[in-house]
Specification:
3-stranded antiparallel β-sheet, binds inosinic acid, binds magnesium ion
Length: about 210
Amino acid sequence: MHPDIERILFTAEQIAERTRALGRRIAEDLAAGCEKGAASGKQAAPPAQNAAAQGGAPASAPPLAVCILKGSVPFFADLIRAIPLPLETEYIALSSYGAGTASSGQVHIGKDIAADVAGRDVLIVEDIVDSGRTLAFLCGHLAARHPRSVRVVTLLDKPSRRAVPFTPDYVGFAVDDVFVVGCGMDYAERYRNLPYIGVLKPSVYGG
Ligand code: IMP
Ligand code: MG
């Protein structure tokens, strides 16, 4: 174990197993065409044919999996390979944290997605939901482009930390209010390559 890690919360094997299970569930829901995102009120989805009539992607366009850079990269790479359906991928860079461990409250778009989302099922893939601000912002941002549905899957969820109302559709693991790193998650850009998810020693960030 890395010397800056206080304890391991989830091993690489546990993460892999949970990711495969999430992939199976998401694939079933996408294949069934259920508008889970629409039902949970994440966007006002117009009928798919309207989106197509507006010049959007045809209703047959495959679902679009959106990876939030950089923290979601390892989870995204494993998850999309656990979804045995036609999929397209996109990458968006968002940030709400500076170099510290507390959210700044502001969400910035570094790099937006290029694909047309109109009329399509969108699956947003996140590493961890904390205050909820990043996902609430991104769901609103994408909803303005008239997707058919928007679903959010997050590897980790810290429900006790919500500052704005937000409920992900799929959660890998719920965790307490601790600062975690590994499997894509960082502190000041470090520890993303740890194969497990661990609690960072507070002494590392002066806590
Ligand atoms: P939110 O907007 O407050 O929900 O923050 C979401 C983002 O904050 C996540 O995508 C992570 O990048 C980052 N974040 C939140 N909690 C942690 C943590 O415990 N470790 C590492 N990054 C975190
Ligand atoms: Mg993130």
